[in-house]
Design goal:
Layout: E1 3-8, H1 14-23, E2 27-32, H2 38-44, E3 48-51, E4 77-80, H3 82-90, E5 94-97, E6 103-111, E7 123-130, E8 132-136, E9 142-146, E10 154-157, E11 162-165, H4 177-188, H5 197-211, E12 217-220, H6 225-238, E13 242-248, H7 256-268, E14 272-276, H8 278-285, H9 291-312, E15 318-320, H10 325-331, E16 356-358, H11 366-375, H12 380-383, H13 403-422, E17 431-445, E18 448-461, E19 469-470, H14 475-488, E20 492-497
Helix pairs in contact: 5-6, 5-11, 6-11, 8-9, 13-14
Bound molecules: xanthosine-5'-monophosphate.
C-alpha cells in the first residue's frame, strides 16, 4: 500500500495534515520525529514525507531536529512551517527571528512557476503563523514564493524533490492549500491515490479472517460509533466467532438500550449479549453525590458486569477494542492533569484471560470510521450518533441519582433533541443534551404554586472536545424546548441555557 509519512514535530495541525492526505486517497501515518529512523523510513517504503509545523525555533537547543540524511534518501519531502525552517537549517540555509516580521493569519503570497504551485494563481491567500523565517535559502534551493514580510515563503530543490512552505496548506484558510498538497502527493511523490474505504474494508476483512481464523473474539459494545463499527467489521471477518457484550447500565438516553439491541441482535443473533444491569448500577450509586466517586463506581461496576458475562461464554482468545487513530496518537503523548477520570473500557484487559488484543480501526480517523460504518450498512442514526460519555446520564443528573430523576432527564433530553432536529439545527452543534440540576425553584402552573427541578440545556461547538464554545442556538429552539419540557414534565419548573465555554467549564457538568 502506498503511504506518506507525516513526521510530527509538535505542530497543532498534524492530524489535519494526515486527514488531508487521506482525503486524496493516499494513506498517511503520523510518527513522532524521534520514533523513526532513516533506515526504517526506507524499509517502510514511504512515497513521500511531510515535516509538520512545531512551536520551536530551529536554533533552540531543545528544539526537535532530525538526521539531515533524510534529505538524501531520494524520497520527496514537504516541510511545513517549522518543518520548512528545519529543512532549510539541515540543508545549510539561515533562519532568523524578527518579532516585527511575524505573520499570523491570512496573508497574500506571490508564487512562481513550480510543480507544487501548478494550477495556483500567482497571487493567492495563505494561512501564516510564524515568527521565525528563512532569510537565506540553502544552496541548491530556489525561492518560489514571497510575501511582503517574508523573503522566502516557499522554496524547493526540484531535482531532489524537496519542497518547503512557510504557510499552512492543510488549513481551509489557505485558498489553494489542497491543490498544493495534491501537487505534492501526485506530481512530486507520484502516488496513484487508490486508498479507498472499500479497499480498506476488503483488505481488513481478508487480514482479520486470516489472523483470527478459528479464534473466539470478544468485544465490549457500547453502542457508540467506534465499538459498533469495530463489531460490524469483525463480524464480517469472523462471523459467529465474535461475541459482543453490551453492558446496559440503565444510564442510557431514551430508548437507546433497545435501539442498540435491535440493531445488533438482528445481525449477530445469540452472539449479541445485553447485560441488563440497571438495578445493580443504581444500587451502587444510591446516595452518592460526588462526581468522581460516581465515575469510579460506574467504571468498576462496568468491568465487573462485563467479566461476569464473559465468564459465561467460556474461553476467549482475542479481545477486540474500538480504538481509533486519534486515541493511538493521543496515548503517545505525555501525562496531563486528570480533570475527570474518563470511563472507557481501558480496564478490561486485566479481568479476562486472552491471547491478544485486536484493534481493527486503529488506523482510522473518526470520519473514516463513520464511512466504514455506512458502507457496512449500519444505521445512519448510529453512525452519526453524537458523543455520549461512558458513565452516561449519571454525569448529567447532578447530586444523587434515582430512577425517577433519570426518567425525567431522559424525557427532557429527548424533547431538546427533537426540537434541535425540528428546527434543523443539528448541523450547527457538535454535542447537545439536557442536564437535571439539583436546584429546585418556585414556579406557577395553572394558578398553583409549584416547586420543582431546573433543567439546564447545553450545546457546544468544537473540533476536538478539548476546547469548546457554547453553541448560539436560535432562541426559537430554546423557547420551544423550554415550553415543551415545562409543559410535559410536571416536576420541572425552570429551564436554563448553559452559556459557558470550555475552559473554564467542561462539556459535561460532572
Ligand atoms: P468534558 O466534560 O471532559 O467532555 O469536557 C469532553 C467530551 O468527552 C465526553 N466525555 C466522556 N467520554 N467517557 C467517554 O467516553 C467519559 O467518561 C466521558 N466524560 C466526558 C463528553 O461527552 C464530551 O464529548
Amino acid at each position: 500500500m502506498e503511504k506518506i509519512l507525516v513526521m510530527d514535530f509538535g505542530g497543532q495541525y498534524n492530524q489535519l495534515i494526515a486527514r488531508r492526505v487521506r482525503e486524496n486517497h493516499v494513506y498517511a501515518e503520523i510518527k513522532p520525529y524521534n520514533k523513526i529512523t532513516c533506515s526504517e523510513i526506507v524499509a517502510e517504503g514511504y512515497k513521500g514525507i511531510i515535516f509538520t509545523g512545531g512551536p520551536n525555533s530551529v536554533y533552540d537547543e531543545k528544539s526537535p531536529h532530525y538526521d539531515p540524511e533524510i534529505l538524501t534518501l531520494g524520497i520527496p519531502v514537504l516541510g511545513i512551517c517549522y518543518g520548512d525552517q528545519l529543512m532549510a537549517y539541515m540543508a545549510g540555509g539561515e533562519i532568523t527571528s524578527a518579532e516585527n516580521s511575524s505573520e499570523y493569519g491570512k496573508t497574500t503570497v506571490r508564487v512562481k512557476d513550480s510543480k507544487i504551485f501548478k494550477d495556483v494563481p500567482t497571487e493567492n491567500i495563505c494561512w501564516m503563523s510564524h515568527t521565525d523565517y528563512i532569510c537565506k535559502a540553502p544552496e541548491g534551493f530556489e525561492i518560489i514564493a514571497t510575501t511582503d514580510q517574508c523573503p522566502c515563503a516557499a522554496m524547493c530543490n526540484a531535482e531532489k524533490k524537496l519542497y518547503g512552505v512557510q504557510f499552512h496548506p492543510e488549513v481551509n484558510h489557505t485558498e489553494y492549500g489542497n491543490v498544493m498538497l495534491k501537487n505534492f502527493i501526485f506530481d512530486v511523490c507520484g502516488c496513484a491515490g487508490d486508498w479507498k474505504m472499500e479497499s480498506f474494508i476488503d483488505s481488513s476483512v481478508e487480514k482479520l479472517s486470516k489472523d483470527l481464523a478459528g479464534k473466539k473474539v470478544l468485544l465490549a459494545l457500547s453502542g457508540g460509533v467506534d465499538s459498533s463499527v469495530a463489531a460490524a467489521l469483525l463480524y464480517k471477518a469472523v462471523g459467529s466467532n465474535l461475541t459482543c457484550i453490551f453492558v446496559d447500565h440503565g444510564l442510557m438516553r431514551k430508548d437507546e438500550g433497545d435501539f442498540v439491541e435491535e440493531t445488533f441482535k438482528s445481525r449477530f443473533g445469540d452472539n449479541f449479549i445485553r447485560a441488563n444491569a440497571e438495578d445493580v448500577f443504581l444500587g451502587k450509586l444510591k446516595g452518592v453525590t460526588d462526581p468522581e466517586t460516581k465515575r469510579k463506581i460506574i467504571g468498576e461496576e462496568f468491568i465487573r458486569t462485563f467479566e461476569a458475562e464473559a465468564k459465561k461464554i467460556g474461553k476467549v482468545d482475542i479481545l477486540a477494542q474500538g480504538t481509533i487513530y486519534p486515541d493511538v496518537i493521543e496515548s503517545g503523548k505525555g501525562d496531563s492533569a486528570v480533570i475527570k477520570s474518563h470511563h472507557n473500557v481501558g480496564g478490561l484487559p486485566d479481568v479476562i484471560a486472552f491471547e491478544s488484543i485486536v484493534e481493527p480501526l486503529r488506523d482510522l480517523f473518526k470520519d473514516e470510521v463513520r464511512e466504514v460504518g455506512l458502507k457496512l450498512g449500519l444505521p445512519r442514526e448510529l453512525v452519526f450518533r453524537q458523543p455520549f460519555p461512558g458513565p452516561g446520564l449519571a454525569v448529567r443528573v447532578i447530586g444523587e441519582i434515582t430512577k425517577d430523576k433519570l426518567d425525567t432527564l431522559r424525557e427532557a433530553d429527548y424533547i431538546f433533541r427533537q426540537e434541535v432536529a425540528a428546527f434543523d439545527c443539528e448541523g450547527m452543534t457538535n454535542q447537545y443534551f439536557a442536564v437535571l440540576t439539583d436546584l429546585k425553584s418556585v414556579g406557577v402552573k395553572g394558578d398553583a404554586r409549584t416547586y420543582g427541578y431546573t433543567v439546564a440545556l447545553r450545546a457546544v461547538t468544537t473540533d476536538d472536545f478539548m476546547t469548546a464554545t457554547f453553541t448560539k442556538l436560535p432562541f426559537e429552539v430554546l423557547e420551544s424546548a423550554s415550553n415543551k419540557i415545562t409543559n410535559q414534565l410536571g416536576n420541572i419548573t425552570r429551564v436554563v441555557y448553559d452559556i459557558t465555554s470550555k475552559p473554564p467549564a467542561t462539556v459535561e457538568w460532572e
